[in-house]
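Subject: mismatched residue count in predicted assembly?

I count 613 residues in my input, but I want to confirm that the predicted structure covers every chain. Input:
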Amino acid sequence: MEITRPRTLTDARRPVLWWDRGRWRRSVDALAGRGMAAVTLAACALVIVIGAALLVRAWPVLSTRSPGALIWSQTWHPTQGAFGFAPFIAGSLIVTLLAMVLAVPAALFSALYLAEYARMRSAIKPLIDLLASIPSVVYGLWGVLFIVPLIRTTIGPWADRTLGHALPLFANRNPTGYGVLAGGIVLAIMVYPIIVAVTDEVLRSVPQGMREASLALGATEWETTKYVTVRKALPGIVAAVVLGFSRAFGETLAVLMVVGNVAQMPGSLFDAATPLPALIANNYGEMMSIPMFDAALMAAALMLLVVVLLFNAAARLMLARLQTESAA
Amino acid sequence: MNRQRRRHLEQRVFTTIMRLSLFLALGVLGLILVTVVRKGLGALSWNMLTQSSTGGYYLGSDEGGILNAILGSLYLAAGATALALAAGVPVVIYLHAYLGRSRLADLIRLAFDVLWGIPSIVYGAFAFTLMLLAGMRASLLGGILTLALVVLPILVRAMDEVVRLVPSELRESTLALGTTRLEMARILLRQTLPGLATAALLAFGRAIGDAAAVLFTAGYTDHMPDSLGRPVASLPLAIFFQLSSPFPAVQARAYASALVLTALILAISLLARLSMRALSKHVVR
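Triage response: the counts match. Full output below for your records.
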């Protein structure tokens, strides 16, 4: 027997049929929500899982040597169990810093132009994005075919002649052209579009009214940019540079192809070096055949992860705060 | 008056510097494309595109092409994008339909931003240790899984940005008609389809160009990809391994691979722009 009186939505006493479409939809909704929450949390937990896995695998090396010895020691003899990471840390730092020195000014000026002055923005922006989408090996190939010969035949000898005697930084003892400078140049071109994209976005989030106020006071466009826009966007610009740094720090194959790969402390721009990512990529083939070698390489991966995580989290938090500020 | 002139001179100087730095970058882009196309066209031939390579990637032989790497790369990138979509779409639905604007959602976004920043060599090393644990060898499956991890954050954040643009009125009116959150998510996804397609293409492009992640996990081989459990060649590694060979015939394969890879990337970014335009016809604004 069905109930004959009219039902209302709020009627709590209506009999529950075995098939209740509303209830079915609600439970599907809840179940799907739980499933998707699980997927989301699993993906987020990946950061921790990766760190933990690398830590476990690197533990044989980390537990038997003091952190100071690992970081500062320069002796790298895997077959004798000597794992000093100093040459590789130094290699990573010098190549990355060089890339930043070359890329940051160009990237910031480009982003300023793109965001504040350019009339052909819609034509130029896709090209910058294209620069970001070119695979790293293609950059490496170009480095090998163009930058390395240029350094070998022109830049290297010239720098050695003019500055090499006075400044050891410019002394050229390496006739191949493969070295820190080649790696730095290739990396600089790779991080340029990243810094431009983030800076451009930050600059465009500066309220138009601030610019207008400055212009109305008689400031030139450049003065407005310098004193108002850039000052307002400064935390975001710093974040963009930090993001670029961490991207450059972890970049592997493009650098590996042009940096020379010698396990030494680089003393000059033209010396060969081995940054941390290149160390991992170069030696993974042998890592299972030498005791502790695999643990040492995983320790290198862990260092890379820790540095990149710190820089990235800091930059992202800065950008997020900027976003909530401009929304408020 | 003098001061006025100095201020305007300063403006002129700095806009010139800005223009120069932009032209420098675009010039480098042109230089890269010209180098790749010139070297690649010289190496490209019908056999190069239709034959698998022979004789190993270092010594090589004069015969053979790069079809194994082209197919391998397409399989790797397609598999990785499909897997990342399967994991990424639920994440985006959860973020937008279930969480909305909340601290937890911001935290999840931060986590994916951080994941995005992790270098692919670290993903490679991580996946390699897991594969050792599971007794897996370098294989197509290993490469697909690793690349899926690499592109998942890119995909999630790109889709997230697109779904965020849907006006909140649309959500509210959908919910007001009595839909559940899950049913509303279907409306959200249909509205943002062009953006989602663009995000998937972006992820595909990233996956096909990534070399460090597949170095340990997919390996390299002269053979055509034939099974999920066997090593597979890829275009980035074809460039990397064959470029250092002393033999011109093998180097030519690296140049040809670079041209094919760059052409694929160009095609993908063009397609991404077109899909954005073509599919957005049906979007309610």
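Strands of chain A lie at 76-77, 82-83. Marking this ticket as 'not a bug'.
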